Amino acid sequence: MSNLFRLDGKVALVIGGAGGIGSALSLGMAQYGAKVVVADVLGMDALNAFAAEVAAKTGAETMAHQVDVTNEENMAVLVKDVLARFGVIDILINAFGLNMKRPALEYPMADWEKMFAVNVKGVMIACKHVANAMKERKQGSIINLSSVRGIRGYGGGNSAYCGTKGAVEMITKTLAIELAPFNIRVNALGPALIITQGTIHIQQNPQLAEKYKALIPMGRLGLPEDLVGPAVYLASDAAAFHTGQTLFIDGGATAS
Ligand SMILES: NC(=O)c1ccc[n+]([C@@H]2O[C@H](COP(=O)([O-])OP(=O)(O)OC[C@H]3O[C@@H](n4cnc5c(N)ncnc54)[C@H](OP(=O)(O)O)[C@@H]3O)[C@@H](O)[C@H]2O)c1
User: Fold this and answer.
1) Rounded distance, CA 79 to CA 4, Å?
2) What CATH number is given for 11-246 in this structure?
3) I need a surface site. Which of 104, 105, 149, 171 has the fewest CB within 10 A?
């Protein structure tokens, strides 16, 4: 019972694993004992350097792999290479994503399609290929990155983003049902604003930061590390009967 939250011996594939949230989750998986594959669209030099940093900090075995989640052949190669190195995949975290904020009345459809290609098609491609690798062992945990914007409408040019995250919500629930017979659990994390490279300008602008904090009962913005505990829980045997749900990590933003 004391090891319920440990991930020793498990293999975690974190896609978008070198991004703002993904890098904290890659490190978190390794800190709790998993072998970690950091996969991202970034160049291999940066990926290798980050995977080496995670290994040095935690003593975990790590591997770096480039992937574009919108490309199904790329994903097939990633899964094949991870299986060749580690034999299994126990945990998939889909921590990639984009937000191209544009006014709805002027939304360029090329940008709309790119958003849906990465945030929605990418999630499905990753889930499909990795779940196929998990199904024979009847064991797996998939964690998608949704958002409070997957269940709430927001202004400020978020029509595509909210649309894609709403889709992630329903893909998560539907795959949870379809993959349950294989004991593959599918859940999501739904963060409120998390301070990363892409959102640091909000923290640095006191007026804007106050506006965002006012939406959060706990009165602060989120940090990538706030997602580590919930991700470890969902990945671990502690969550053995937990599937089809989104954990909103939002300081109480969706409580009202
Ligand atoms: N930060 C927040 O406030 C927040 C709140 C709620 C939900 N989320 C969700 O959490 C997830 C991670 O967000 P984040 O803030 O960590 O974003 P981020 O820092 O931009 O990280 C996302 C990572 O995904 C990679 N990526 C983009 N397109 C890809 C593709 N086609 N194939 C593979 N990797 C790709 C990015 O690479 P490049 O940088 O090279 O493009 C980046 O490394 C996203 O799904 C986001 O919607 C974030």
Assistant:
1) 27
2) 3.40.50.720
3) 105
Residue nearest to atom 42 of ligand 1 (CA): 19
Give 136 Cα–ligand 1 centroid separation in angstroms.
30
The residue ranges of the chain whose pLDDT is under 70 are: 1-2
Give dist(CA 115, CA 246) in Å, integer. 21
Please give the number of the atom of ligand 1 that sits closest to the Cα of 119.
45
For residue 76, give the H/E element and its range. helix 72-86
181 Cα–ligand 1 center, Å: 30
Look up residue 101 and give its amino acid.
K
> Known catalytic residue: 212?
no
Nearest CA to ligand 1 atom 21: 19
Taking the C-alpha atoms of residue 8 and residue 35, their distance in angstroms, rounded to an integer, is 8
E strand spans, 96-183: 140-145
What is the model's pLDDT at position 121?
99
Q: 115: Cβ below 6 Å to ligand 1?
A: no
CB 150 near ligand 1, within 6 Å:
no
Identify which of 103, 99, 109, 104 has the alpha carbon closest to the alpha carbon of residue 161: 99
pLDDT, one tens digit per residue, over 190-223 is: 999 999 999 999 999 999 999 999 999 999 999 9
pLDDT for position 178: 98
